[in-house]
Specification:
The complex is a heterodimer of chains A (about 400) and B (about 300).
Chain A lengths: L1 H16 L15 E11 L11 E4 L2 E8 L4 E12 L2 E13 L6 E9 L20 H7 L4 E10 L5 E9 L20 E12 L3 E12 L32 E11 L9 E12 L4 H10 L9 E14 L2 E16 L2 E19 L2 E15 L2 E16 L7
Antiparallel strand pairs in A: 1-2, 1-3, 1-17, 3-4, 4-5, 5-6, 6-7, 7-8, 8-9, 9-10, 10-11, 11-12, 12-13, 13-14, 14-15, 15-16, 16-17
Chain B lengths: L1 H26 L5 E4 L2 H10 L4 E4 L14 H8 L3 E4 L9 H8 L11 E3 L32 H18 L4 H25 L7 E4 L5 H7 L2 E5 L10 H11 L4 E7 L5 H10 L3 E4 L12 H14 L3
Parallel strand pairs in B: 1-2, 1-3, 3-4, 5-6, 5-7, 7-8
Helix pairs in contact in B: 3-4, 5-6, 6-10, 8-9
The chains are: A mainly beta (about 400), B alpha/beta (about 300).
Chain lengths: ~400, ~300
Amino acid sequence: MTISTMRLSGVAAACALLSTQALASDPSLTNPAISAVLDGYYQSGERPMSERVEGFGLGHTELAMSANIDDMFYGKLTAVVEMHDGETELGLEEAFIQTLAMPGGFSVRAGRFLSDIGYLNNQHVHTDSFSDRPAAYRAFLGSHYFDDGVRLSYVAPTDLYWTMGVEAFKGDNMRAADEHGERDFKNLGVYTAFTKLGGDVGANGSWQAGLSYLRNENGRLTADEHDHEEPAVDDGHDHSHSAQYTGENTYVADFVYKWAPSGNYKYQHLTLSGEYFRVTDFKPLEEHDDHDDDDGHGDEGKDYQEGWYLSSVYQFSPHWSAGIRYGQVDTQMMHDDHFDPQKLKETEVSLAWHHSHFSTVRLQYTNQQGTNFDGFEDDNIITLQYVMTLGAHGAHQF
Amino acid sequence: MRTNSKQLLSKSLKALTLTLALGTVNSAVAGLNIFACEPEYAALAKELAPDAKIYSATTAMQDPHQVQARPSLIAKMRQADLAICAGADLEVGWLPMLQMKSANAKVRSTDQGLFFAAEQIDTLDQLTSVDRSMGDVHAKGNPHLHFDPNRLLDVATALTGKLVQLDPDNKAQYQSSLASFSERWQAAIPKWEAKAKPLEGSKVIAYHSSFKYLFNWLGLEQVADLEPKPGIPPSSSHLASLLNRAKQGDILAIVIASYQSERGADWLAERSDLPVLVLPMSVGGNEQSVDLFTLYDSAIALLLSAKQ
């Protein structure tokens, strides 16, 4: 309640002052952009590696505040309240500063923020068209990868959009499983590099394509002599946002194409997107050498894990949108001295009703086909979910 | 940290000056690089800075509330010396994102190369408090101000000040462009007013408050909206209530803008025997509207066509 009162008085103050400077939304000391996201659902089952449980539940309940700090810096804070096992947990998803006035198209972001690798990762989960991120994101990035670190980005002064950037992160959530706490992890665990290109195709279409690389110093598994060692994947209720399958090197290719008649997004628009992940160098070093000699049979010796998805969402009226998504992951699970291949395929259909710009009610059906995947074999899941935002107007991110 | 940021700032200022200086070398040919959020401001910039390189982020066929911060717009804003937008939160869903992603310090604040038309004039329909149950309303008032010729002239004057601030070497040129525009515009206003005289007191139903300033200026009254609430598309129950209103027989026409859906309007028109007028929302909204003058000509001619 306090929040909405704060917001209203903020807006009133802005009206009274009609401040003549700063950004379009001119958040200032008296009027920071404050918003909350409410996400609740009921679902008939559970998707592996997902944060959503069976039955009634709350998704990410977010409270975000952002404003220009001064003429040099912008700051944003996003707190996330999550419930599980009867406990309420408060997490920080974003707490970063970003430079506003560096010359030459450069900018620096520091603190805790969403990594800019891939297409979906830098977007907030509540803006998605499906209730969960694709399986590849859940397996390799812990749904969405945010961490403490620093980013340097550059935008080229060209008519073709071209940006590139590098990031360095602490990488705690990307560490390989270490059940005995014996491992000496590196404090600076993750480095990324990414580039994105984009532009328009005629008056109706726009596109973006990107390539990203993630180096994970702590991503390689260590050999374990204990019987029946399983990486964290067996815990379906793990809400720690940790990646379930890691490797030293991750490569991501992504593309998105959006279409709207005459470029007018109000009534109809189509979004096609897809991403491919490849994770390599995950096997324990000692293990890796022996493995090829000992093990003759086919697929088992694969030295990479991969995942991809293709998604198509069509908003056919201002009130309704429908989406279809197919995605799969091929992962490797360590058992003693060898690896067993796992596979998960997900086919999903969603239908969403948008009463306004700020409220969505979604019905989603998922069919998942698992092979050796944590007991998931052939499951059908229905999810009914609402996502609503209140407060400051969110951004229409491409 | 403090000193560092100051150093950085002074460095960036130097870089900026250098860029500006380099820019001036080419300015005889290229002039300023201008990013206009809407086509009416691209057209205004063309009147006031004919040598500038001007890009319009949207067309008259696109709802400026619903634009996405797409890659091509980031790339254009990255290169801009000046961004001209309506303001009053019309672009709140995409302009801040473009500013953030384009990392262009020049168009970050209205102290420098950012210009909001709505800040130069008094907007209509300002609200002291807003609540989203009222729909997607703007507390800072109606941003579609380019259909008020007097307000637009004030905006033109202020914009010339901004152009001079950013490119002082060409001050004389900007001032003569303003003088020429102002003279032609002021000559056109009484002609439009005379032409539109028969429209005074007419009642219309319109999609949204898109033409509030035009109606306000010419003395038309918008008695109902096709939208049940701003930003919410027409619903069948709302249209049914409009049909009852239309049956009173005093409505001239149903007015929609070039980027608004005709569906609700057509439904109502069929049952009420009223004409549907698709007015150009901006320059490029129909074949006739090639600049600000012909935009006004066309909008008034279309309204008059319902009178006959």
